[in-house]
Amino acid sequence: MSAQVSVKALDGGWGWVIVMASFMAQFLAYGSPQSVGVLYPEWLSAFQEGKGMTAWVGSLVSGVGLIASPVCSACVDNFGARPVTIFSGVMVAGGLMLSAFAPNVQFLIFSYGIVVGLGCGLVYAATLTITCQYFDKRRGLALGIVTTGTSVGGFLYATAQNELIVLFGLDGCLLIIGALALNLMACAGFMRPLNLPGYYLKRKAALERNTEEQIFEKPPVEDLKITPGSTEKNEVVKEFLITIDAKDLTPAPSAEKKGSFLCGSTIVRVIKEKRHAYSKYMHSTAEFLHDRAFVALCVALFLFSLGAFPPVLFMEDVAQSEGLIDEVAIIPLVSIVAITTGVGKLALGALADVRWINSLYLYAFTLLGTGSALLLIPLCKSYLGLQILSAVVGFFSGNWSLTSYITTKIVGMDRLTQAHGILMCFGGCGIVLGPPVVGWFFDWTQSYDLAFYFSGGCVLLGGFLLFLCVLPCWDRKKTNNNRPDIQYTSNCDRVASVA
Q1: CA-CA distance, 1 to 67, in Å (whole number)?
Q2: Is residue 270 scored above 80 in pLDDT?
Q3: Measuring CA to CA, how many Å separate 154 from each of 42, 53, 161, 323?
Q4: CA gap 298, 290 in Å, rounded
Q5: Among 163, 448, 175, 145, which residue's Cα sits nearest to residue 331?
Q6: How far is CA 133 from CA 2, 25, 66, 353, in A?
Q7: Which of 50, 174, 197, 447 is the most buried (most CB within 10 A)?
Q8: Which is nearest to 200 in space by CA: 420, 18, 14, 5?
Q9: Which one, of 331, 362, 329, 358, lies nearest residue 344 by Cα?
Q10: Is residue 99 within 8 Å of residue 111, measured between CB atoms?
Q11: What pTM was computed for the model?
Q12: Average confidence (pLDDT) over 9-24
């Protein structure tokens, strides 16, 4: 909603410090949500609720933050990545610790699903935005490294949470994990902004406007003589930065004489201006939905999230319900998905930087591979087969590192945060709906077969739709139809032109 000062991306230097800080931030925030499949059987045993109801916890923690991505992106735009990451650390840690005292699944849905989910959404928006600001030529690799933090966190947290549950119980595990999440505030200290956030730009503009128009009286010359160790200069600056719109909200001396009526009209005028700014923001948001490639990407991400996220949550329960394993293995299937997702993010992020590879086609290919693996899960009757399919699903699920890269290619860097927020909202809706739907399928049929056929079909459909919508023939057809030298409205016009 506010213009930012554009600074050339560094593609190195402090940018790599930003990458490591963002990696650790995603590691700490998403470690427990990405390995929530380990906690899922414990919650089923503790609260004795249906699988559909309990699945809401795991789906909301990953989906709520993505649904709220437009709001999270606006927060990053206005306040910057550092304050947002600090606040998110408080939310994630507080939500995890609060979940240790949950008396039922409904309370867990709020504390773990919503509070932790919103905190993760803020971390995700902040880390991706500041990484894109610092990198241009190596943006794909940088984003791949940053988003790998969620996968490494899921891999390590899955094993760690298993051990913590054995040693300290479920409540002790959540308290310890919540304490670790407080380190998010330390990661935020390294996130030095390359572009000034809109919040500070507004105040800078207000300072310049107030200085030029001399709203405040000019102090005597004697008062300007400040000693080197004095802090009075800083106090003068703070007086200029009281409000964003101090000029608009402060009536002129003539207005004060005329009474409070003009003061009220001034406030009404300011409200109209703000409403106009918000309506302009909404109009620019609607413009994204007119882009065929962007809409196709949104639909594909929704279908991918709807079908590909449930295996992360239900894979261990699938193995146990089929009698393939009695208890969680030393390296759980969730950990296999997490570590292969990290490898996929690095590999796919590096491939996106290759000039001759179309990133949209690459993303569509990952959807087709994920859908095919999901369709094979019901046919697998061995634990080794589930491990292999989990690795395949995890590798292709690394396409999350491509979303910011592709969005930048479609809409440009200037509108990245706004467009990325819309895209993540579609993905969040799919993540929220996916696990409950799979859980309800199991409650209805007492089998995961139909559920995974549904999931695989959704992902395959998304891949085919994206592949068809980004074919170059659409642009060629549009170019031919827009030729100004040949325009016929009917056969009569064509005959007339020949005559």
Answers
A1: 19
A2: no
A3: 17, 23, 10, 25
A4: 12
A5: 163
A6: 16, 17, 20, 16
A7: 174
A8: 5
A9: 362
A10: yes
A11: 0.63
A12: 84
Query: What is the largest distance, in Å, between two alpha-carbon atoms of the chain?
Result: 92
Helices (H), 353-486: 359-376, 383-396, 400-411, 416-445, 449-469, 472-481
3-state SS string for 168-198 = HHHHHHHHHHHHHHCCHHHHHCCCCCCCCCH
CA distance 290 to 181: 40
Distances (CA, A) of 335 to 154, 331, 332, 391: 6, 6, 5, 10
Q: How many other C-beta atoms can be found within 10 angstroms of the C-beta atom of residue 96?
A: 26
Other Cβ atoms closer than 10 A to 159: 18
Amino acid in position 472: P
Report DSSP letters for 4-36, one per residue.
-------SSTHHHHHHHHHHHHHHHHHHHHHTH
Distance CA 291, CA 279 (A): 20
Instruction: Please give the mean pLDDT across all residues of the chain.
Output: 76
CA separation for the pair 147, 150 (Å, rounded): 6
- Residues 56/97, Cβ–Cβ less than 8 Å: no
List the single range of 73-87, 92-106, 409-423 with lowest mean pLDDT: 409-423
Cβ-proximal residues to 345 (8 Å cutoff; 6+ apart), any chain: 144, 147, 148, 151, 398, 400, 401
Neighbours of 460 (CB within 10 A): 21
Contact predicate 402/349, CB 8 Å: yes
Pairwise CA distance, residues 473 & 471, whole Å: 5
Asked if residues 198 and 4 have their Cβ atoms less than 8 Å apart, the reply is yes
Among 175, 167, 172, 65, residue whose Cα is nearest residue 126: 65
- As a whole number of angstroms, the distance between CA 409 and CA 369 comes to 23
- Higher pLDDT, residue 86 or 75: 86
What is the rounded CA–CA span in Å between residue 405 and residue 413? 10
> What are the backbone dihedrals phi and psi of residue 244, each rounded to the nearest 5 degrees, phi first?
-70, -50
pLDDT tier at 212, thresholds 50, 70, 90: low
Q: How far apart are CA 341 and CA 392, in angstroms?
A: 9
